[in-house]
Write a structure and sequence with these properties.
347 residues, alpha/beta, two-stranded antiparallel sheet, 5-stranded mixed beta sheet, 7 strands
Length: 347
């Protein structure tokens, strides 16, 4: 808006751009948090050694490229002229992986792991609505989503790889802006490197960084009911109590779908993600890459020989996820995860 000027701050590696009001006096602390998120992400979720090719639907090898999809990609959680996605791309940090650059098909057309992710810390509702209108004008496939997103206090998008949250919003209780920053940057980085993954992992990883860096959870996508003050730091104890004797099952976390917050599944998603990051670090990139490729191939609806659209409501079946987990981690991964939760789950 004309009343609130904004400034751009880029992290030292050029991977994260944070846009805040010009009068923001906390940008130093915010960028320090962004650096910490990026440091954890690069160490915990490196790129896969090999990128899997996903066949473009309805097209043979030597045929012309297919037309653009007609589907309307939705945000992960729908909750001035020169915007950051118009800036020249920043040279990414040097990587040791030999993984080739792979371009996704459809609306998410940028090469994986190539963008500078962008986080808007929006001053008020007026500026939030102005940002949404700009996105709809720049990316027409978001037009129908914008009407829904106006009623929320933030969002995370994969294309463009941008997120936002309201700095000042009516009715905010039990809310921490630093947790918002950690949570949303974490999800942007995962989207940028691995595209859309199952909802439980996307949120579970963001929650893991909230707990690691901020010692509690304050971001609850799709949760409508009141959040008690005692809940934020109680996740580790609650998970240990549940799995003291019970073993983790695929349905405890793999069935956690977008659009509805289920507390027990949320906590199990975090616990499983914490296990994967701590104990399956070497195998995790290959598993995530295969999950990405499976979704990219199956989350589409063919409408003709050379016409298709994304299935924006697609959820990867629990059984298919479980097969890939067993393939990459072995038959005993759930037993090992359960033992980790009982004895080594971080506080």
């Amino acid at each position: 808006s004309t009343d609130n000027a904004y400034k751009l701050d880029l992290d030292r590696t050029g991977r994260v751009l944070v846009i805040t009001r010009d009068s923001n006096d906390r940008i130093g602390q915010q960028m320090e948090l962004a650096d910490q998120v990026l440091e954890h992400f690069e160490r915990e979720l490196p790129p896969p050694a090999v990128r899997l090719e996903v066949p473009v639907p309805g097209v043979q090898k030597k045929e012309p490229e297919p037309p653009a999809p007609t589907g309307e990609p939705l945000p992960e959680d729908p909750e001035a002229d020169d915007h950051p996605w118009k800036l020249a791309p920043t040279k990414p940090a040097e990587r040791t992986s030999a993984a080739p650059v792979v371009t996704t098909w459809g609306a998410e057309g940028a090469p994986l792991d190539s963008q500078t992710v962008v986080l808007f810390v929006v001053r008020d509702q007026d500026d939030f609505v102005a940002l949404l209108k700009h996105l709809a004008a720049k990316y027409p496939y978001l037009a129908s989503w914008v009407a829904e997103a106006k009623a929320n206090q933030g969002f995370v998008l994969g294309e463009p790889c941008v997120a936002a949250y309201l700095e000042i919003a009516d009715g905010q209780e039990e809310w921490d802006p630093d947790n918002e920053l950690v949570h949303r940057i974490a999800r942007l980085l995962v989207l940028n490197r691995y595209g859309e993954l199952p909802n439980w992992f996307m949120l579970g990883y963001a929650w893991s960084l909230e707990i690691t860096l901020k010692k509690g959870v304050y971001c609850f996508p799709w949760r409508d009911e009141f959040v008690w003050a005692t809940e934020h730091g109680a996740w580790p104890a609650a998970v240990r109590a549940r799995y003291g004797k019970e073993r983790l099952k695929p349905s405890d976390f793999m069935g956690f779908q977008r659009g509805k917050y289920i507390d027990e599944m949320a906590k199990a998603s975090w616990a499983m993600t914490a296990y994967l990051v701590a104990k399956e670090h070497e195998k995790l990139p290959g598993l995530l890459e295969e999950l990405r490729a499976f979704r990219a191939e199956h989350a589409r609806i063919q409408e003709g020989p050379n016409r298709w659209r994304r299935d924006t409501k697609y959820e990867m079946p629990v059984a298919e996820q479980a097969k890939l987990f067993t393939k990459h981690l072995g038959e005993g991964y759930l037993q090992r995860a359960s033992m980790f939760v009982r004895a080594e789950l971080p506080n």
